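Lab notebook, page 48
Experiment: co-folding of the full assembly
Goal: obtain a model of how the components sit together before planning crosslinking
Operator: M.T.
Materials (sequences as entered):
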Amino acid sequence: MKFFIDTANLDQIKEAADLGILDGVTTNPSLMAKEGITGDKNILAHYKKICEIVEGDVSAEVIATDFSGMISEGKKLASLAENIVVKVPMTRDGVKAISYFTDHGINTNCTLVFSAGQAILAAKAGATYLSPFVGRVDDVTWDGIKLIEEIVSIYSIQGYITEILAASIRSPLHIVQAAKAGADVVTCPLSSILGLFNHPLTDIGLAKFLEDHKKAAK
Ligand code: G3P
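Observation: model returned without errors.
Model output:
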């Protein structure tokens, strides 16, 4: 399973990249706004900076909601760097745009996916990645991980090659569950990635090893 970080914060992207386990980045308009990045020029420049830090795929989301707007924005984004993936919402125009980008060799990430039916449409359009929102499904008391399992099963039966990118990940447990469910990629905040390191027995064990080493050296 690939690890993507879900942020537009350059320091956090660098910190995750430094760990040596980062495969890519996803962003969305909310995450860009959180970093105070506004205006077309600044947004494009910020994506360029992210692509300079990370070799893997970087998802950059279109703001337009109509087909022709998505196409012109997506082309601009895709021309920034080879590893840009154009993120497109799961709408009628979005699916049409994904199909267009697929035909023109531009990688896509279909976002705001909440059902297996939507997952089928995105795969049919040739999306490179599909982003079901695990945490937001949990928020409404459905089961986000069950949705991942369902899509993994359908894609396997149908032989769809779209990669399932578990998004809206909120905890280290979500990461483990997404891996178990068969997600191809997980995108999560830095805190969830770092949370995977934690185990009290590791801390206790390391302290004991170092103590024993010190004693033996006396
Ligand atoms: O990749 C989509 C993700 O950023 C949404 O996460 O936590 O806002 O539901 P969240």
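Interpretation: The two ends are 45 Å apart (CA to CA).
Next step: discuss with group before ordering constructs.
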